[in-house]
Design goal:
The protein is α/β, with parallel strands linked by helices and about 500 residues long. The chain contains 21 helices and 5 strands. This is HAT C-terminal dimerisation domain-containing protein.
Length: about 500
């Protein structure tokens, strides 16, 4: 059954440009598994809906060797097994970023000459937040506190009952504290948001646990002290504000239909939003909210926080970290301290990371894709599209002529995305073959490899601690059947094939 589905996927890719997505994860037995996903435009769905960009799981590959050459060989063998043309691969999305002798370098040099390497944008965004977390000493401590609060109220049914009782006493809707996951940047904002909404509940639950005594009261006393510190509350509000746009960006980058050009616009928009937030007025508005919150919860903002050991600043942030101020008190008690050493510094560090990890240096081909977005200033500009067309070996002379004809036609059309442009030109595909092909390639290039991560979620449901002896091939087939349930299986063909393989069967199946 799984092979029949793979053959159907292979047929959908015949003669079409496609993108390859790959990622690795470890199963419950400790074996490394690589997920291969293929992204392609489904012609059957173009007229039916706007969701015609599909990502199909080809299968999981059990890995025994982990060097770049072995990984690249395993990918190529899998594609060749199902007669998938390597020359039609125009993009390779992964988190494997070795540019000199890594997997992506080997694939591009030896097997996929047209493939552009796309480092998963969601992974990049997580690296942005992870690096910012360790750039300021108290922020690392803050994240540790958030994790301990979640573990304290979820690890024990007793402490969880105190938490639920506190929500009932305060007449609040029963909501859960969210897990802080280091590999998912959006989980950081959701965990902070959950603590902010349940702050009074947490304080009341800690006090009730302390009053009742017992072994759990000791941990409750320590956590109660740190969550009532002014530094914790201020950091809670600042990170809630700054990580909010990043959470939205992360959600958008996970969408299947998002093209690379639109992703670059979203990233630029978030950078602009953070730049706007970096002024005194924005912080004053935020600090007024913090003051009201502290007054409501009897927290004295003038309490002096404990001293922290000075840490060596990373070279990456050397130009954004403020080491001294002039004309301000150095007693860590005033609004200026929180604005300068926490708020401004976090914004500067986030901007440094975003601009560095999403840099446009040496990305002329990918940047030219944004010229296909209707809201771009360089919309359908020939010189902007030329690098992308030349990379795909398209005739740029014909492209120039097609652009000259199509621009007046689209002048009064209302279009927002590349998908709108494609649907407008698809009926005229025979007249504008190069331009339509260019748009198809642009939409096929992925922004992230999150579909691979979704397959790992399915893998963990299939291979569990009580079913941990299945072979790698069986695991791959079961995952494929679970993920690609929308693809119909021809059972008549399946029975005929089974009959041909097992000719000694006592039952005549054919």
């Amino acid at each position: 059954m799984a092979d029949q589905i793979r053959c159907q996927i292979s047929m959908k890719l015949k003669g079409k440009p496609y993108a390859l997505l790959a990622d690795e994860s470890r199963d419950v037995s400790g074996h490394e598994q690589m997920s291969l996903v293929l992204r392609v435009i489904d012609d059957e769905k173009i007229k039916a809906s706007n969701h015609f960009i599909e990502e199909y799981l080809l299968g999981l590959i059990g890995l025994c060797s982990f060097d770049a050459l072995s990984l690249a060989g395993a990918i190529v063998d899998m594609l060749k097994t199902y007669d998938i043309d390597l020359n039609l691969c125009i993009a390779f999305a992964s988190v494997i970023a070795g540019k000199n002798a890594g997997v992506q370098a080997i694939l591009r040099e030896r097997f996929m000459p047209k493939a552009l390497y796309i480092h998963c944008h969601v992974h990049r965004l997580n690296l942005v937040v992870a690096d910012v977390c360790v750039s300021i000493s108290y922020v690392s401590e803050f994240y540790s506190i958030v994790k301990k609060i979640h573990n304290y109220f979820t690890a024990s049914c007793v402490t969880n009952k105190y938490f639920r009782d506190a929500q009932t006493e305060l007449k609040l809707t029963h909501t859960n504290l969210k897990l802080w996951a280091d590999i998912h940047c959006d989980s950081r904002w959701t965990s902070i948001d959950a603590i902010l909404k349940n702050y009074e509940v947490i304080i009341l639950a800690f006090n009730n646990l302390i009053d009742d005594g017992g072994a759990r009261a000791d941990d409750a006393k320590g956590l109660l002290v740190v969550v009532r510190e002014p530094m914790f509350v201020v950091t809670l509000f600042i990170l809630h504000k700054l990580l909010g746009p990043i959470k939205i960006l992360s959600d958008k980058l996970k969408a299947k239909v998002l093209d690379y050009g639109k992703a670059q616009q979203l990233i630029t928009s978030v950078i602009e939003e953070l730049n706007v937030s970096r002024d005194q007025k924005s912080f004053e508005q935020l600090f007024e909210t913090i003051i009201d919150f502290c007054q409501k919860n009897n927290i004295n903002l003038k309490d002096k926080p404990k001293e922290h050991r000075k840490r060596t600043v990373s070279i990456r942030f050397k130009d954004s970290v403020i080491s001294s101020t002039i004309g301000q008190r150095d007693d860590n008690q005033n609004e200026e301290y929180y604005r300068t050493y926490i708020y401004y510094q976090l914004i500067e560090n986030i901007l440094v990371e975003l601009k560095d990890r999403f840099s446009s240096k040496n990305l002329n081909i990918l940047l030219s894709i944004s010229s296909l977005c209707p809201d771009s200033d360089m919309f359908l500009h020939f010189e902007s599209l030329r690098p992308f067309a030349e990379h795909l070996h398209f005739d740029v002379g014909i492209l120039f002529n097609e652009l000259a004809v199509v621009k007046p036609m689209l002048k009064n059309k209302s279009m927002i995305t590349v998908i709108d442009l494609y649907q407008e030109l698809y009926p005229l595909k025979e007249a504008f073959q190069i331009l339509v092909a260019l748009i198809e390639c642009a939409m096929t290039i992925p922004v992230s490899s999150t579909t691979c991560e979704r397959t790992f979620s399915r893998m963990k449901l299939i291979k569990t601690t009580v079913r941990n002896t299945m072979t790698a091939d069986r695991l791959s087939d079961l995952c494929l059947l679970a993920v690609e349930r929308d693809i119909d299986v021809n059972f008549e063909q399946l029975i005929d094939k089974f009959s041909d393989i097992h000719k000694n069967s006592r039952i005549m199946l054919k």
